[in-house]
Amino acid sequence: MKQLNRQPTLSKQHRPHHHRLPLPRSLASYLLREHRLLFVLLGFLLASSCFLIYPSFTPLSSSSSPRDTLLARGDSVIVVDNFFTGRKENFAHHLADPRFELIRHDVVEPILLEVDQIYHLACPASPYKTNVMGTLNMLGLAKRVGARFLLTSTSEVYGDPLEHPQKESYWGHVNPIGVRSCYDEGKRTAETLTMDYHRGAGVEVRIARIFNTYGPRMCLDDGRVVSNFVAQTLRKQPMTVYGDGKQTRSFQYVSDLVDGLITLMESEHIGPFNLGNPGEFTMLELAQVVKETIDPSARVEFKPNTADDPHMRKPDISKAKSLLHWEPKISLKQGLPRMVSDFQMRIMDEKR
């Protein structure tokens, strides 16, 4: 990929006020990340997730965060985080790098930086402000400085789909007043705003619709099904399955998503693009994979299903394969042990 050029820094008198760590200023590629997880986030994913993402382990992947890949290839990176759930320790391995800068800031407030690319990955548990005001602020920044803007949207824009698998051309089936709709409609609004800025203001934009993602450094208790199952099993608790467990989801390993996001950002295609692994599992099948990976004696506990829970979710990635030449490489059975190793270490630390 083409290396980004540095841009001149802003003069002190014109810099907006924000809390920042005392690091050398370096500008080029702007990674925007706010852990919600809702993220629930990812949670990286909730596919938009709560990933507290660290550099990944080999050999399955070379990176579990866009910032790691971008720094490794020589770009300068700024991370903006409000630290509602994130920890500064997650960036400790980058703090000595003069090409890395970490700023404490909430994107619901404007910020002015000179950058070339913006990865808008932020989304908190109560997402309407970040999805609307945060997206508007980042689009405004992209317009002012001429940066390329990448929105990480979500498979939730498809709601409880009537089309299966879901193509990008499908408009979705969302209950606008349902308990899940704040996130779903917030991301749909963010996509609308992104395209409005592209058509009306000429901003270069890219849109990714992320499906369920898992991997090292997810929040242990973020409410996502993979992290829930893994954490519960490691703690010798029953895995909580809502409903009859026949709902389906597709799970991609985080390094595959990172590759997809960077490939999309540097392509000439706007999107939207589905970024997900088309391997489809029922919740009971996922529980079985977790049992095989961690503890064959692990139990499942059934609870009433939540309102508006989608019955099935699977990406059609034909568009990404054709135009981006991207497709996931890591299966659930390959990636899950890496996540389990990370969770084991952190759960052991809890007991000390």
Automatic annotation (TrEMBL):
InterPro entries from the entry? NAD(P)-bd_dom, NAD(P)-bd_dom_sf, UXS-like
Q: What is its main location?
A: Golgi
Name the cofactor(s) required for activity, per the record. NAD(+)
Stretches for region Disordered: 1-20
* Residue spans crossing the bilayer: 37-57
Which residues fall in a compositionally biased region of kind Polar residues? Answer: 1-11
Give UniProt keywords alphabetically: Decarboxylase, Glycoprotein, Golgi apparatus, Lyase, Membrane, NAD, Signal-anchor, Transmembrane, Transmembrane helix
Protein EC: 4.1.1.35
Question: Which residues belong to any copy of the NAD(P)-binding domain?
Answer: 69-339
Q: Where in the cell is it found?
A: Golgi apparatus membrane; Golgi apparatus, Golgi stack membrane
Its topology with respect to the membrane? Single-pass type II membrane protein
Q: Which domain of life is it from?
A: Eukaryota
Which reaction equation describes what this protein catalyses?
A: UDP-alpha-D-glucuronate + H(+) = UDP-alpha-D-xylose + CO2
* Enzyme class, broadest EC rank: lyase
**What GO biological process terms does the UniProt entry carry, in alphabetical order?**
D-xylose metabolic process; UDP-D-xylose biosynthetic process
Role this protein plays? Catalyzes the NAD-dependent decarboxylation of UDP-glucuronic acid to UDP-xylose. Necessary for the biosynthesis of the core tetrasaccharide in glycosaminoglycan biosynthesis.
As for family, the record states: Belongs to the NAD(P)-dependent epimerase/dehydratase family. UDP-glucuronic acid decarboxylase subfamily.
**This protein is called what?**
UDP-glucuronic acid decarboxylase 1
Taxonomic path = Eukaryota, Viridiplantae, Streptophyta, Embryophyta, Tracheophyta
